[in-house]
Amino acid sequence: MEKVLIVEDSRAFRMLVEYEARQHGLATVAVACMADAEAVLNQDVDFLCAVLDYNLPDAQHGEVIDLCLANHLKVIVLTASQTETIRKQVLAKPVIDYIPKDSSHCVQAVCQLLLRLSRNKDHQVLIVDDSPSVRKHVAATLERQYLKVHEANDGEQALSMLSMAPGITLVITDYAMPNMDGIALVHQIRKHHEGAMLAIIGLSGHHDDTLTTRFLKAGANDYLQKPFRTYPKRDLFQTMRPQAKCNMAS
């Protein structure tokens, strides 16, 4: 059973998160402060994820986030502080998500995110881009979500990798690449892979209003303009849900 670390000083809210997580089949370890979280992590770091309150009695500025990241935990941040400064500070760190405590639905959102992280372990993603830096950036975001990542530097290499790795369920491809552009790649992929089994997201830094239509007509599930945020709320994951039978993200 997957375990989740919950660090929350509000007893009522902590118990609610614990209850909902257990209802979704997750084990929980819950504490009320950073000192107790540190004591737990000194004994065990085998957690699916840590769900952290930003403002704790002994760590009022998100220090518990750095503690958990230093122990190589995936992190979801919950906070009642919704200032733009705090939001930027949190999202500048390699966290999974930042969820405001602004309604009763936030706990359900956390549990759905936790389940998605667990399911992501069964999925593989292929990133196709001739830019090593872009591939590294996207790969880091996806690996943070427990997804196994493959990389290809052009369309021809991507087709070869798809034939060798049948477990790939999502392809993220740039448009402008040598040998074969992204739209041509999508056409080739769709000759052998239906949209229900393999999702495709097109990317481009070109400001061409026709690219969205061209990618979708070729068989892509969605198209995103670069650059996108480090943590995608709509990006990369949620866009492919309607057509692909993958329980991946965020």
TrEMBL record:
Claim: Phosphoprotein is one of the keywords in the record: yes
4-aspartylphosphate modifications at: D53, D174
TM ranges: none
Segments forming domain Response regulatory: 3-116, 124-241
Name assigned to this protein: Response regulator
A Pfam family this chain is assigned to: Response_reg
Gene3D superfamilies in the cross-refs: 3.40.50.2300
Coiled-coil features, chain-numbered ranges: none
UniProt keyword terms in alphabetical order: Phosphoprotein
Keyword flag RNA-binding: no
InterPro entries from the UniProt entry: Bact_response_regulator (IPR050595), CheY-like_superfamily (IPR011006), Sig_transdc_resp-reg_receiver (IPR001789)
Domain of life: Bacteria
PROSITE patterns (alphabetical): PROKAR_LIPOPROTEIN, RESPONSE_REGULATORY
